[in-house]
User: Which sequence fits this backbone?
């Protein structure tokens, strides 16, 4: 079983759509949780950290359910510029190695 | 402020040759990490430096890989001899020791192709 599993992609959605990504992690001792975004042939960039209380940044909402070991990312009102691969990432201890999911590709069409 | 830089951006070598990748972290960042992504797989951790010391090298695949960070500034990752399965994108990331978040900043990566 992979340490971090994500929805298989790709997701193809029209502009303005709402899209949700799901992720599960296997190690209950995981301490920190993130969503990274990776554009084609570019480096991963932090999109947002994920907190137990849930957090929102503009059109993006992230949630964490520790009991179910489940992380989600919701994107509202999708833009063409949201097209990228979204990576679910966990960290077992602060400052330590990041554990990545395989990523889910999103393509937003006009 | 300059971000994490990596050199070269691309490298094509033949099986059995040696390649050295370089990473310059963000100035002042004591934590430096190496990761790689091989075709069709997720990004995987290789190792973690704190200053010049190896904090965690549990992800290094075998003894053909040697990472150094002399002086605690830039780091090199040498692959000797390279094998076909070493092909992939090698990312470096850095993090400030004093930072109160876990944010790691990634470099653009080195795309390694072993023929």
Assistant:
């Amino acid at each position: 079983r992979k340490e971090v599993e994500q929805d298989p992609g790709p997701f193809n959605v029209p502009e303005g759509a709402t899209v949700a990504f799901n992720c599960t992690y296997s190690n209950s001792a995981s301490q920190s949780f993130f969503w990274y975004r990776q554009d084609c042939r570019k480096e991963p960039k932090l999109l947002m950290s994920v907190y137990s209380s849930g957090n929102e940044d503009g059109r993006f909402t992230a949630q964490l359910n520790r009991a179910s070991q489940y992380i989600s990312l919701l994107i509202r009102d999708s833009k063409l510029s949201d097209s990228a691969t979204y990576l679910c990432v966990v960290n077992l201890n602060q400052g330590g190695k990041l554990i990545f999911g395989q990523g889910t590709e999103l393509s937003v069409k006009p | 402020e300059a971000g994490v830089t990596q050199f070269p951006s691309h490298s094509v070598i033949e099986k059995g040759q040696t390649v050295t990748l370089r990473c310059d972290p963000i100035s002042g960042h004591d934590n430096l990490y190496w990761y790689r992504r091989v075709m069709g797989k997720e990004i995987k951790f290789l190792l973690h430096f704190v200053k010049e010391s190896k904090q965690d090298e549990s992800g290094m695949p075998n003894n053909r890989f040697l990472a150094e960070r002399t002086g605690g500034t830039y780091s090199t990752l040498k692959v000797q001899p390279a094998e076909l399965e070493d092909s992939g994108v090698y990312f470096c990331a850095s993090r400030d020791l004093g930072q109160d978040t876990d944010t790691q900043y990634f470099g653009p990566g080195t795309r390694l192709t072993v023929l």
Observations:
- Chain A has a mean pLDDT of 93.
- Chain A touches chain B at residues 2, 4, 32, 34, 42-46, 49, 87, 91, 94-103 (CB under 8 Å).
- DSSP finds no helices and eleven strands in chain A.
